[in-house]
Amino acid sequence: MTSRQPIDEPSLDPELVEVDMHLVPPTQPVTGIVTSNEICLRGKSASFVRHVCVDVSGTPLQGAFHAGQSFGIVPPGLTEHGKPHKVRLYSIASPTVGEDGEGRILSTTCKRLIDEHSPQASSEEATRGLHLGVCSNYVCDLAPGDEIRITGPAGKRFVLPKAPERHDFLFLATGTGIAPFRGMVKDLLEGPDGPCKSDIHLVMGAPYTSDLLYDGFFRETADRHPNFHYHTVISREFLPDGRPQGYIHHYLDREIRLHGDLLTRDRALVYICGLAGMQTGVFQAMAKLGIGGPYLKVHEELAGVAPEDWELADIKRRVRPTHRCMLEVY
Ligand code: FAD
Ligand code: A2P
Question: Is the C-alpha dihedral spanning 127, 83, 27, 100 positive or negative?
């Protein structure tokens, strides 16, 4: 059962790095230049996910973004109603120093939104064919040298603490939710002050092994740094005993290293990024394991209800992450 975090323990809360926001507003995007655009999946997959690098030299974004923040992309053209397309946000996948080490090139991890078309409103007629997301497909089609309209940076809460060595980290990702963790892991382990010695666990959820993103980078980093641990949870593949691997919260449930050791430490921080809704299972698992207190504020109305009986609507309204739990889902 969860308990509230005692209010007389403020020292456990992280002091997050201070970041700039909205230096370039969505109404006045600036121009970046694409420098590379490459598939970043581990193998042949039904999805298409690309690592896209953008040179922001000479714009207010140069040197002004942090790992964990997002930036905006404004796709060209007009909507079916004749209005300019709205800005879409993409997580920054590069470290704070950028891909180039000088804050000039930022990157993201863009997944093509492709689905069979289905009516989105009762007034809309059913048509056959594919629904292709406007911005994600535009970004994935870009070639080196192409111009792109960008805004940002956005977000101030999903960033690393000022003193990372005072904390240990559990990073939980699904799909492109891995993007900010690529930048954060680089900040923590490849920064100018030398590698951070804290324990860092990254748990990545993907449908198939072939869908893993930046898998080579994370494996090599784990080989080089004994304090960095890379765990994968492949939802449509099986454990050696034939059980499904499940979702990341099932992994949390199974892995004593994560819940019994890491999360019970006063210095641990949890970062969750990816599919909207992924926090539900994680919150329930943490509460069920009796380790949710430092990471979750549970409304009094739910305090007497067993976490496995929490309804989705209850979790949305009555369970909030604390300062030790950063959440970015979309
Ligand atoms: P759109 O053209 O906007 O299409 C999506 C819309 O189409 C849906 O809202 C829905 O109304 C409609 N639709 C969906 N399915 C169907 C269907 N079957 N038939 C008919 N209509 C349908 N994305 C990434 O890839 N990488 C990231 O790092 C990333 N980071 C993000 C960070 C934040 C903070 C946020 C908020 C979002 C992030 N996103 C990221 C998501 C991204 O902003 C876009 O939402 C995503 O790329 C889809 O945009 P799109 O223009 O391609 O799709
Ligand atoms: P599945 O698709 O098997 O249901 P991607 O973005 O590449 O599709 O990967 C998202 C991963 O997150 C998949 O493994 C997907 O599983 C899994 N997933 C889907 N819903 C949830 C959820 N509510 N909580 C955690 N993981 C989820």
Answer: positive
CB of 198 closer than 6 angstroms to any ligand 1 atom: no
Ligand with an atom nearest the CA of residue 252: 2
Which DSSP string do the residues of 229-279 spell out, in sequence order?
EEEEEETTSB-TTS-B---HHHHHHH-HIIIIIITTSTTEEEEEEESTTHH
Domain boundaries, given as residue ranges, for the chain: 30-154, 164-329
**Own/partner pairs for 7-13, CB < 8 Å, 24+ apart?**
9/266, 12/266, 12/267, 12/294, 12/324, 13/322, 13/323, 13/324
Encoding tokens for residue 79?
A: 């909507």
Fold of 164-329: Rossmann fold (3.40.50)
List 206's β-bridge partners, or say none. Answer: 234
> CA-CA distances (angstroms) from residue 275 to 103, 226, 329?
28, 29, 5
Q: Whose CA is nearest to atom 5 of ligand 2?
A: 175
Flag whether pLDDT at 43 surpasses 70: yes
Q: What is the pLDDT of residues 220-257, one digit of tens each?
A: 999 999 999 999 999 999 999 999 999 999 999 999 99
Residues 6+ positions from 100 with CB-CB distance below 8 Å: none
CATH class, range 30-154: mainly beta
Whether the predicted pLDDT of 3 surpasses 60: no
Largest CA distance in the chain: 59
Q: Is 11 in the pocket of ligand 1 (CB under 6 A)?
A: no
